[in-house]
Amino acid sequence: MAEEKKVVRKKIEATVQMNRYMSDYFYELNEADKTRNRKIAWCTSVGPAEILRAMGFLVHFPENHGAMLGATRMSTDMIPIANASGYSPEICSYLTADVGAYMKGVTPLSRAYPGIDRVPRPDVLVYNTNQCRDVQDWFAWYAAEFKVPMLGIHTHRGVKDVGDAHVASIASQMKALIPQLEAISGNKFDMDKLRHVLALSKECSTLWKKVLDTASAKPSPITFFDGTIHMGPAVVLRGTQTAVDYYNLLLAELETRIQNKVAAVEGERFRLYWDGMPMWGRLRDHSDLFAGAGVSVLASTYCNSWIFSAFDPEDPFNSMARAYTELFIVRADDAKEAYIRRMIEFFKVDGIIYHDAKTCPNNSNCRYGMPQRLEALTGVPSLTINGDLNDLRLVSDEQTKTNVEAFIEQLEEK
Amino acid sequence: MKDSQPVFAGIDVGASRTKVVILDREQQIIGRAVVKSGTDFEAASRQCLTLALDMAGRTAGQIAKAMTTGYGRKNVAISQESKTEISCHARGCYYYFPRPISIIDIGGQDNKIIKLDESGKRLSFKMNRKCAAGTGAFLEEMSVRLDIPLEDLDGLARQSLNMVELGSFCTVFSATEVLEKIRQGKKVPDIVKGLFFSVIKRVMEMDSLSEHVVMTGGVVAHNAFLVLMMEEMIGRRILVPEYPQLTGALGAALYAMEKN
Ligand code: SF4
Q1: Which among A280, A284, A283 is positioned nearest to A390, based on CA atoms?
Q2: How far A373 CA lies from chain B's nearest CA (Å)?
């Protein structure tokens, strides 16, 4: 029988340290939740985390929790609970998984971190619609549930070039948060603190970019699937020294791998770019599927979402406004297209996988002819796979496998 | 003696039917068979292989190399080697039509559009999404709902004078729509032609087509009228290989020969 090849995964040593940092982060939040000794803010993954930290909040990211629900495959049981209460199966499955889990009174945090039995309760919810509208509706649900204030930044979407008018608008919205956050936190806003947090966040961003850029080496020392795990600190700990320390450690390990020509995927035959979100509940299967065929999926738009090159501690509000609006997800298709073209060249990829995630149109970039246009321009072939980030009812493993294998056969024939 | 020469087997274990092609060294099809896949892929593939070998007048011992393909390609012990049905259909079609082609394969559970360049190299491929809309499963479901044997659909569609168009994507909703049409007093042949048309629409939504179009798959093999309808739709002749249901198995046999 045509047996599947067993895949030996090369462990990234730094993971142990990351797990420690992540564990400290969650226990600190849990402590604050229990004792209310610190104020807690919930923030969207590319929301104004730096402002919140500078004002003394501990920050919880519901999307991170959503991803944990996905990765533990709890999500598919939670989503229907939210569906039944009027949140459609067609909308963000982070939202539906997270709200469903809350309704059921469960969290993956308690499996991973003994003693934590619930998600930390917020004192305030702060979103930025730069990524999508769903985050606003998501936070609105909790604002009503916990009877806490919800604040938001409304970003222009589908932006081709980020101009001064965009920056001015977002910067003023960010500034407008301050008096409200002062009232909630009881702390006075301190510009120097913000500069400090922003400097750390910028350092984190620079290091995270360097980490991801190591994938341009042949063979690549890291895969996209590794990236989705190791981006944890860049999402939840940016603006802290801890995140900086972590990425220094990880970068050093990956650079050593490059020097020693250590490949993340043994015998790397082809190099692929992943566009869109991971299917969290299938991360390992997908990693094995590609690695087993000697294919390294080594770079992605998704992991790059936490690179904020424009951050400038000398000009905090304008630079944050720019950085959070320059993100890929905020942009028009022509800007996205130019971006992916640069990625194809930089990472020297042989093909692109587009994940068309049913419940996240915002991260699915294959719906307006992009694969066809890019293929015509670059000659780099692509494959679109249908699935979802969290809702495994929308994932067909057999279809995915056949599509991926057929795509690899196509690359072999080239 | 010719009968003692080695042969090559391609086994296409589809979700609905298992197909086998036996090729001789001159790449001639000397044996072929189709059986229901059922739930035991192993048994189905053995049975199918035996039938095809019988037709070829050969024994299993004479198989120099075998290759599996299709949905159950990794579930059968006959061969250690497999290739996806995408590659095998492409290979099988190019064997008949060595030119740039767009292949439309309408199978029991999925549809594919595969594009090849003049050298047979694959340019792209698309498979339908998870849903059964527009596949053989859709027609099977409808034949049950209408209480018409599957093999009668083609003949009925040909009798249609005034096709009834169906609007829904979804197999279940289409079934409701069909019942509604019957209540409205529409004629069965007109509804059946509408079902065929809906298969064509689902396929046409998947990808654009290049100049030379080839149609394959079990649905095509049993419903030649579907090809005529498609020709009318795209305004040009469509190429259909000798055994439309066997192109995957043929491709697998050709790969087996190449790998030997
Ligand atoms: S970007 Fe997509 S996955 Fe993220 S919160 Fe919005 S809809 Fe959900």
Answers
A1: A280
A2: 14
> How many Å lie between the centroid of ligand 1 and the Cα of residue A114?
28
Question: What's the pLDDT score for residue B145?
Answer: 86
pTM of the entire structure?
A: 0.92
**Residue A3 reports pLDDT greater than 80:** no
Residue linked to tokens 């496998």 = A401
CATH architecture of B99-240: 2-Layer Sandwich (3.30)
How is residue B235 annotated by DSSP?
T
Give the mean model confidence (pLDDT) for residues A331-336: 96
Cα A295 to chain centroid distance, Å, stands at 23
B197/chain A closest Cα distance in angstroms? 25
* Contact status, residue A224 vs residue A355, Cβ threshold 8 Å: no
Shared fold status for B7-86+246-259 and B99-240: yes
> Nearest CB to A386: which of B68, B80, B130?
B130
Asked if the Cβ–Cβ distance from B87 to A410 is below 8 Å, we say yes
Question: Atom of ligand 1 at shortest distance to CA of A93?
Answer: 8
Instruction: Tell me the pLDDT tens digit for each residue of A126-140.
Output: 999 999 999 999 999
Q: Say how far apart CA A231 and CA A212 lie, in whole Å.
A: 10
DSSP assignment, residue B254? H
Find out whether the beta carbon of A389 lies less than 6 Å from any atom of ligand 1.
yes
CB contact under 8 A, A409 and B84: yes
Confidence label for A9 from pLDDT (cuts 50, 70 and 90): confident
The Cα A97–Cα A87 span in angstroms is: 10
Q: Name residue A238's amino acid.
A: R
Contact at CB, A414 and B84, closer than 8 angstroms: no
User: Domains of chain B: which residue ranges?
Assistant: 7-86+246-259, 99-240
For B111, name the nearest residue in chain A, comparing CA atoms only. Answer: A399
C-alpha–C-alpha distance, residues A14 and A187, integer Å: 36
- CB contact under 8 Å between B125 and A410, yes or no, is yes
* A2 touches B: beta carbon within 8 Å: yes
3-state DSSP percent of chain B in helix, strand and coil, to 5: 45, 20, 35
List of chain B residues with pLDDT < 50? none
User: What percent of chain A is predicted at pLDDT more than 70?
Assistant: 99
For domain B7-86+246-259, give the CATH number: 3.30.420.40
What average pLDDT is seen over chain A? 96
Q: Does B83 touch chain A (CB under 8 A)?
A: yes
The one-letter amino acid code at A27 reads: Y
Ligand 1 neighbourhood includes A94 CB (under 6 angstroms)? yes
Residue A216 zone, left/alpha/beta (φ > 0; ψ -120 to 50; rest): alpha
Instruction: Kindly state whether B37 is in contact with chain A, defined as any CB-CB distance less than 8 angstroms.
Output: no
- Biggest CA–CA distance in chain B, Å, is 66
User: A409: which chain B residues are within 8 Å (Cβ-Cβ)?
Assistant: 83-84, 86-87, 122
Q: Is A376 on the interface with B (CB under 8 A)?
A: no
